[in-house]
Sequence to fold (102 residues):
Amino acid sequence: MSFLKKLFGGGKTEAGASGAAKDSHRSEPQDYKGFRIVATPYKDAGQYQLCGVISKEIDGASRDHRFVRADRFPGLDDAVEMTFLKARQIIDQQGERLFGEV
Fold:
């Protein structure tokens, strides 16, 4: 039953009032092809979950795309590095389509 509660949002969460996980980490941003990438891995079950934000200013407004992948890493540095690799791959594949019709 506990598994089902977590699966459907009824279980405890590590997110605080701001919506950020307790053990989340925010890297320095990297620029790539006009996009800004920030790695935001968070600790879950003793490992760091791959998570990040891709941003771009479009028509004077900042647009963000948050992504989370199933990949987990024992070390923070590996999680950050792989987040940047995954973000660059997403940008190469989707470009501005990340933000809907642009």
